[in-house]
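TICKET: design request
STATUS: open
ATTACHED STRUCTURE:
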């Protein structure tokens, strides 16, 4: 009986402190996080492929081949 009461009180505290009871589906937005993660991964793979193609050594003009690729890397995601 005491264990059941502790379990109930624990759930009540968590509900109150996290606000999980304030929404119909607390994990309903997890698809968005998953989709965003997939998009970031796909963009990172493209960048890695470009780095492999260009190499990592500085060019004779002093420009590093990776610099322009990394500016604004998360823009548009």
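STATUS: resolved
RESOLUTION: sequence designed for all positions
ATTACHED SEQUENCE:
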């Amino acid at each position: 009986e005491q264990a059941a009461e502790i379990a109930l009180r624990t759930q009540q505290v968590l509900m109150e402190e996290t606000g999980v009871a304030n929404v119909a589906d607390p994990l309903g937005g997890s698809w968005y996080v998953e989709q965003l993660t997939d998009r970031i991964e796909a963009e990172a793979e493209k960048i890695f492929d470009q780095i492999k193609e260009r190499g990592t050594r500085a060019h004779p003009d002093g420009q590093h081949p990776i610099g322009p690729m990394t500016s604004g890397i998360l823009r548009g995601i």
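CLOSING REMARK: Residues 2 and 41 are 48 Å apart (CA to CA). The mean pLDDT is 77.
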